[in-house]
Amino acid sequence: MAKARKSKPSGKKSKGGGSNLPAIFVILAIIAMIAIYAVKENPDWSKKFDSLTSSETIQKDKTTGNTTAKTQTSKNSQKETKNNTAENKSSQSSTSTTASRDKFDDKAINAQDGAKETAKINSNLPVYSEDDNYYYSSSFDFAWPAYTQDDQIVEHAYYTLRYNEKTEQADWVAYRLKAVDLNKSKFERSNNFRMDPDVKTKSASTSDYKGSGYDRGHLAPAADFSWTKDGMSESFFMSNMSPQEPGFNRGIWRMLEEKVRDWAKSNSEVYVVTGPIYNGKNEKIGKNKVVVPNQYFKVVLELNGKEVKGIGFILENKKATQSLSEYAMSIDDVEKVTGLDFFPIVPDQLENKIESTYNYTLWK
After folding, report:
1. Which domains does the chain have, with CATH numbers?
2. How does pLDDT run across 239-256, given as a tens digit for each residue?
């Protein structure tokens, strides 16, 4: 009987071996679409997923005994805390500095380098600096009479004045007279009378005096500036003129001007303020209605000698019949008549000494 032959296993794969692959691809595609849709509908889902995976990582590390993630998180937290603390300190420091600066500014009015101003001045005399120094012009280096911000102050190179539009002349003219200047060579009198270009409201004109019978009398005399060509020229501005009786202008007024120059030479320097005085109804001349004063004043201050001193004069606008000394008086007396406050920033004790009394014999 013949033996049965054993069948050999076939080397070919079965036809059904790869038949599941397309189904797997379809499932994966569906999952991917679901994931994309979920992300679009809930953007925070990815953050939550990261949080879950991070948490899962930490959990795994816990299982293996590795605390790296936790330690790193702690370090980051400490770093953030330090940064926040530093920012808070910086913010507090900045706020404190600002508050401190604001507080300083509130108390440091008219001061420099934190030092309060200590100088005592008249309430109506403006302060021009912040270091206990006051504003002086080159024309009058000590001080002008007290004035307000409403006054029209005209500052020339060699003298300063307060112009009064109602009277069309200066209320006062102030300047310093020095021996060293008066001893210089002399310039001839210029006689170039003209309107003052620095008077905003326009000064009187030369035509106002024409045919009036009054001299164009200087308040600050031309001879006081004969040592400088420019100063001489400035003295002929019409703002420095006032209607004066010829007998007064060429008589006792001229004598007083000469006397003041002598005092400047013998006392090194003096400070001079002069101006008109009006009493009641006054005559007016010219198209601009220049008011004719009844009187004139002049005050002189000397601070360089052994005896600091001051003296004042009030003279009628007419030919004088008495000697110059008869018209002398204290500066306080001149203030009472004129209503002006002369030399307002002189310390009170010194001001009282200088202005309350006078001694004509001390002026040599």
Report:
1. 24-63+70-91 (no CATH), 152-362 (3.40.570.10)
2. 999 999 999 999 999 999
